[in-house]
Design goal:
The complex is a heterodimer of chains A (about 280) and B (about 375).
Chain A lengths: L1 H12 L7 H26 L1 E3 L9 E2 L2 H7 L5 H32 L5 H7 L2 H4 L2 H15 L5 H25 L3 H9 L4 H30 L2 H7 L6 H10 L3 H25 L2 H4 L5
Helix pairs in contact in A: 2-13, 3-13, 4-8, 4-10, 7-11, 8-10, 8-11, 9-10, 10-13, 12-13
Chain B lengths: L6 E10 L2 E11 L4 E5 L6 H9 L6 E6 L2 E2 L10 E4 L11 H11 L4 H14 L15 H13 L5 E5 L7 H18 L2 E6 L2 H7 L2 E6 L2 E6 L1 H6 L4 H6 L4 E10 L2 E4 L8 E4 L8 E7 L5 E4 L11 E11 L5 E7 L2 E7 L8 E6 L5 E3 L2 H8 L1 H14 L1
Helix pairs in contact in B: 2-3, 2-4, 9-10
The chains are: A mainly alpha (about 280), B alpha+beta (about 375).
Subcellular location (chain A): Cell inner membrane; Cell membrane
Organism (chain A): Chelatococcus composti
Family (chain A): Belongs to the binding-protein-dependent transport system permease family.
């Protein structure tokens, strides 16, 4: 004990420079640049009035493009409202499917359990473009093209894998005896689910809701083929602005999309506990 | 002894897939009785408890409470409360919410629930902890919350699944007596699963010893301790010393023949189903006495005397425990004073502490009807 204390004391008196910090610092610096370099560029573009090659920095700064985006005639606010509305609906529909599916996958001994879990990955596994072109053709026939329900449906198929996988993990992380304890003192199966299972799974379900929300907010291909031009969403606005060479509008839109993403990322870390994460996909 | 059984398990069998866990369990428990299900791990005791609770469906047989068949009823309709080994307290509820949950389910008014919860907390020494979450409690406190949650609903039957195994040794001893006293005071019928022999002995009115999914013996603690019906039960109840002898049934006695390590002696049969031929003898370390080999004093009638050699001695406290080599076997014998290793000694086992078993199972399997006949004959001779 005493020898340990003395060693720590000597270590404190003589701070040694660890040479390993040189390569570590380099790698960390490069990583920081890779992450924050493009972001800085994006932020610069949002306040650049004039910026062209070969200048490294904008020639003139100002907020006139922000005014244009947020002016009553600009369609950014409408797109934002649409995007949030579609994302919220997508979360509701996806969770309505994922809660029972996740519970069943976590609790019942299904023979093809892992196969069913993988099935939810299929919408992600195939190249998006041909799939959505076909869906668009199908939805034309059904009258769903260019409608909010149509876009929500597309986003649900896309987000369901997150919803179901995380919900399954959240439910299987709950000790079965906690449910049995409720059953044994008189709670029906439904009551047990409401009072014990659901509150305990809530953080995991919240996390899956956030993932679905973000997926829907960012989803482009499906929104483009099924939604445009009737349902205007933020990624479509971003695309139009970017394709038209209007980098300021595109950057401001991208920044708008980034805000909820970063906000949710900070929150989701609180909700996703290690015991749930370790069960994702199992 | 028992009037009409209150909780009755009839010919219950449980199987998980192809493996049979319980086979033809018959058990009748009277109202207010405390029954301990005792066995080593994997013997099916927890499965039997979960079958009674309704979490496991038997493939055959019935379970009834007060004459009502509950075999097909879900756990919440059986009027039982189960206390889990893990306690299974709900982490998102406070102590008061955990204890009061069963009453909330029964739609009792809030003030009645609060009163009952306070009552349970006072009874179990949890006063002042109402607002704590289970994570903020010690192991002993969690155990009492789990018990309080089960008792709050006034269950007809209290099921306990090794509720003491996660407590440290000192608390365990006091909680044993607390649970027992509480069960007596409230007049609850209780079924308690444990692998701890002493715990079962101290707490239960009746002990049911399970072995490989069957009941090996059921009886009062005194019965299973002093009159084990099989070699397994004897060993499980602490008679771990085992020597092979041979003998014959003569009238109401069993005459043990002289062997390479033992003198002949005759012990009363006392209704035991022994047959002529080899027998397995079991006895406890503390029931035998150790004397020097040249000791010539008279032994009480029927005492089995084995000659052996001391191999080693240790002092577990209160007495010396000797490992004595008797022929091919080694037995443990207690003595008030230590014998030096390699001393020639005699091990004396009084007849009431000597458990004899004919290897009947093996013999029946091999010889079939003839063994049955000789068994019958020995019974007649005994009567």
């Amino acid at each position: 004990m005493t020898s340990l204390a003395t060693t720590t004391a000597t270590a404190r008196r003589l701070p040694r420079i660890d040479l390993w910090w040189v390569p570590r610092g380099l790698v960390l610096g490069l990583l920081a640049f890779a992450i924050f370099g493009p972001l800085t560029n994006l932020v610069l573009w949002t306040v650049a009035e004039r910026w062209y090659f070969p200048h490294a920095l904008p020639l003139e700064y100002g907020f006139s493009y922000w005014q244009r985006v947020f002016s009553p005639r600009g369609n950014a606010m409408e797109s934002l409202a649409n995007s949030v509305f579609v994302a919220s609906l997508t979360v509701i529909v996806a969770l309505a499917l994922a809660v029972p599916a996740g519970y069943a996958l976590a609790r019942l001994r299904l023979p093809l359990r892992s196969l069913i879990l993988v099935a939810f990955l299929i919408p992600q596994a195939f190249p998006n473009l041909p799939v959505y072109v076909n869906i668009a053709r199908l939805f034309y026939g059904l009258g769903l093209n260019g409608t909010i329900p149509g876009v929500v449906l597309v986003h649900v198929t896309h987000g369901l894998v997150y919803a179901v996988w995380i919900a399954t993990a959240a439910f299987s992380a709950i000790d079965r005896e906690l449910e049995e304890a409720a059953r044994s003192i008189g709670a029906s199966a439904l009551r047990t689910f409401r009072d014990v299972t659901l509150p305990l799974a809530a953080p995991g379900l919240m996390a899956s809701a956030i993932f679905v929300f973000l997926e829907s907010l960012d989803e482009f291909t499906g929104s483009f083929f099924v939604g445009a031009p009737d349902v205007n969403l933020l990624p479509l606005l971003l695309y139009t602005a970017g394709a038209g060479g209007n980098y300021q509008i595109a950057s401001i839109t991208a920044l708008l999309l980034l805000v909820p993403s970063i906000g949710f990322m900070l929150v989701v870390e609180r909700f996703l506990k290690a015991d749930v994460l370790s069960r994702v996909g199992h | 002894m028992t009037p009409a059984p209150f909780l009755e398990v009839k010919k219950a069998s449980v199987a998980y897939g192809a493996t049979t866990v319980l086979e033809g369990i018959d058990l009748a428990i009277a109202k207010g009785e405390f029954v301990a299900l005792l066995g080593s791990s994997g013997c099916g005791k927890t499965t039997l408890l979960r079958t009674i609770a309704g979490f496991v469906k038997p493939v055959a047989g019935t379970i009834s409470v007060a004459g009502r068949d509950v075999t097909r009823l879900p756990p919440d309709k059986r009027g039982m409360a189960l206390v889990f080994q893990s306690y299974a307290l709900w982490p998102h509820m406070t102590v008061a919410q955990n204890i009061g949950y069963g009453l909330k389910l029964r739609r009792q008014p809030a003030d009645a629930i609060a009163r009952r919860v306070a009552e349970m907390e006072a009874l179990l020494g949890l006063t002042g902890l109402s607002r704590r979450k289970p994570a903020q409690l010690s192991g002993g406190q969690r155990q009492r919350v789990a018990l309080g949650r089960a008792l709050a609903i006034d269950p007809e039957i209290l099921l306990l699944d090794e509720p003491l195994s996660n407590l440290d040794a000192r608390i365990r001893l006091s909680v044993r007596h607390e649970i027992r006293a509480l069960q007596r005071r409230l007049g609850i019928t209780a079924v308690h699963v444990t692998h701890d022999r002493e715990e079962a002995m101290v707490m239960a009115d009746r002990i049911v010893i399970l072995d490989g999914g069957r009941i090996a013996q059921a009886g009062t603690p005194e019965e299973v301790y002093n009159r084990p019906v099989s070699s397994f039960v004897a060993a499980f109840m602490g008679a771990e010393n085992c020597v092979s002898l041979a003998g014959r049934v003569t009238g109401g006695h069993f005459a043990i023949a002289a062997g390479p390590t033992n003198a002949p002696c005759t012990v009363p049969l006392a209704g035991r189903p022994l047959v002529d031929g080899p027998v397995v003898a079991r006895f406890r370390a503390e029931a035998a006495t150790l004397v020097p080999a040249d000791d010539a004093s008279a032994k009480p009638e029927g005492t089995l005397v084995l000659s052996g050699r001391v191999e080693s001695a240790s002092y577990p406290g209160g007495h010396w425990r000797h490992a004595v080599v008797v022929g091919p076997d080694t037995v443990l014998v207690d003595a008030p004073a230590a014998f030096a290793p390699n001393t020639a000694v005699k091990v004396c086992v009084p007849p009431q502490a000597l458990f004899l078993f004919s290897p009947a199972g093996a013999e029946t399997a091999k010889a079939g009807p003839s063994a049955y006949k000789s068994n019958k004959a020995s019974e007649l001779a005994g009567a």
